[in-house]
Amino acid sequence: MHGRGTLQLPSGALYEGEFKDNMYHGAGTYTFPDGCTYRGHFHENRLEGDGVFVDKQGLVWTGVFHGDTALGLKMQLNI
């Protein structure tokens, strides 16, 4: 897949955004099965760059993400 699209995963996770070579790549939104969301930039299926993470209680982390984590935040993408 290449371009913009939506991918619903069997886990219940949902990705809406840009793809490159069948990977999350560019701007997008990832909704985790528990309702948490990440909106920002992706690079080869990993969170990379400016983004906003909202947990299921509504707490918001805004900043620069590298890989699948940010300082004080641990998460796992379902790919």
UniProtKB/TrEMBL annotation:
It comes from the Eukaryota. Keywords: Repeat. The keyword Repeat applies. InterPro entries: MORN, MORN_repeat_protein. This is MORN repeat containing 2.
